[in-house]
Amino acid sequence: MNDSSAATPEPSELLAMLARIAEQARESRQRLPRSQAGQAIWDGLAFSIAGVRLVSSMTEIREMTAYPGQITRVPGSREWMKGLANVRGELLPVIDIQQYFGAKAVIRGKSARMLVIRMRGLVCGLLVPSVQGVKHFDLARRLQHARMEGALGRYVYEAFSIDDEVWPVFSMSGLSADPEFRSATA
């Protein structure tokens, strides 16, 4: 005799399961960043270049991947142009952003990542030593026209202030528009 009723929960059990799921959803929602009505939030990815913490708009970064397992060097290219990597069937130029700015090369390791950008007809991967994750900033805390000293300052046009910390916004759009950056030949 086949007893199919044993596999099908009773209506009261289904309601109890739905109530538990609803409670878990409420608890999860409480752990999300809060925004008050009318408060505009800017989302960015925090990373470092040569020891400087920066943040770039999530709209400027297509994806983040691990440091590529194999990079094929391109003869005649600049030292910071590491070569080409096959990322899910797409050949991608890989650039060591620290070397581009005159610092030491990014070392392959657990924390090193590649940020993939696709802007102004340019698609490439930027090697960075670490990524700190997504940051959410209240637009009211934006410091417009913020500038930085040094080579990184050419691509920082604003910043955010949060808890006595200043987060410079690194413009991937500005970087990809720079003719020097777009010319990887030696």
Put simply, the count of helices is: 4
Q: Termini separation (Å)?
A: 80 Å
Could you name the ranges where pLDDT drops below 50 across 5 or more consecutive residues? none
Largest sheet entry: 5 strands, mixed
Q: What does this entry look like structurally?
A:
The protein has a 5-stranded mixed sheet with strand order 3-6-7-5-4. The chain has helices at 11-31, 97-100, 172-177, 179-182; strands spanning 41-49, 52-57, 63-66, 81-87, 90-96, 113-119, 122-128, 130-138, 142-144, 156-162, 165-170. The chain has a single domain (41-182), classed as OB fold (Dihydrolipoamide Acetyltransferase, E2P). With 186 residues, the protein is α+β, with helices and mostly antiparallel strands. The protein contains 4 helices and 11 strands; from the N terminus they run αβββββαββββββαα. The model has no long low-confidence stretch (mean pLDDT 88).
